[in-house]
Amino acid sequence: MENPIVSVIIVSFNVKELLRQCLNSLRKEQTLMEIFVVDNASQDGTIEMLKSEFSDWRALNIITNEVNIGFSRANNQAISKCSGRYILFLNPDTIILPGAITALVEYLETHIDVGIVGPRLIYSDGSLQLSCGTRPYLLGTIFDSFMLYKLSPRLFGRNRYMEWEHNEERDVGWVSGACLMIRKELALSLKGFDENFFFTGEDVDLCLRVWQRGYRVVYYPKVAIIHLEGQSSRKNRTQIILKAYQSKLYFYRKYKGKLTVIFLRGVFFLSSLVKTIFACIIGSVKPDPYCSIFRAHLNAIFKIWVLNIPQPRGD
Asked: Which of 53, 50, 78, 51 has its CA nearest to residue 63?
């Protein structure tokens, strides 16, 4: 096989049907590529499906882990094996529309100052999915924690560009890791994702480090892919909440220091307290899903203070 132009890395965990759909969409692409599926100990027959349905696809490489080692570490496993000029980090709950990968490659080929490019993400009905944002700042994180953007996207959603139509090319602070293309040499020099991010936040951190290296990060809406958001994660609500808190606390420890982390623990405590009260009230009328939300945030209230925040790694 000729040397590929793009190396696609997909991390999978118990999403067999979604992964099959994603791989079938990739097969229709004309760009010369190789694909690495890194499976984090799925128990749903994923490996058997790959071996029985895609055994004839020479471009497909399978890496299996005995335990779930997290998104960042699993992606990093494949980076050193990539032989393409570009790496596409891709979620298994995506569907690649025809020509999308070719267009992203062409963009990086003609914009040598761009380190990362991300497409427009859309839901299955074609509606816009927010997939980029500014470089994180404390006030924006506080607004997000209390979901104030629901009151006024224009006032409280600026960190996710909610006041913007998302219909033109733009330099952004970060693009979603659901579909993110980066130059391979740049990814190698950055040592890939920071593995202290187990779940969420790793894409934001990677983009920030790309900016620090003097490259641009660009949102490119002329290319669109379908992202079935939320369907690739089946953890319970408490773990989702705590892992999200942990990632944000780690990010701010890495870039702002320990005092900011102490302050944010208090913010997240108040946020979960407010959501617990809200879910309790609404849950008396509409038990599903608010009873589950109530229990999750109630647990988070007590666990936020004992979350372990790793020592930031040196890049």
From this structure: 78
Q: What is the DSSP string of 237-288?
A: HHHHHHHHHHHHHHHHHHHT-HHHHHHHHHHHHHHHHHHHHHHHHHHTT-HH
Q: pLDDT (tens digit, 9 = 90+) per residue, 228-279? A: 976 544 457 888 899 999 999 999 999 999 999 999 999 999 999 999 999 9
Asked if 112 and 215 count as a contact pair (C-beta separation under 8 A), the reply is: no
pLDDT of amino acid 90? 98
The structure tokens listed for 280 are 């309790």
Judging by DSSP bridges, how do beta strands 60-65 and 33-40 pair with one another? parallel
Question: Domain 6-130+166-227's class?
Answer: alpha beta
Would you list the domain boundaries of the chain?
6-130+166-227, 237-306
Sign of the dihedral through C-alpha 192, 194, 197, 203:
negative
Task: Tell me how far apart the alpha carbons of residues 11 and 200 are, in angstroms, rounded to a whole number.
Answer: 13
Instruction: Report whether 89 contacts 9 (CB < 8 A).
Output: yes
Q: Is 136 exposed, middle or buried (0-12, 13-18, 19+ CB in 10 A)?
A: buried
18-70 confidence digits (pLDDT tens): 999 999 999 999 889 999 999 999 999 999 999 999 999 999 999 999 999 99
- State the DSSP code for 143: H
In DSSP terms, which residues pair with 114 in a beta bridge? 216
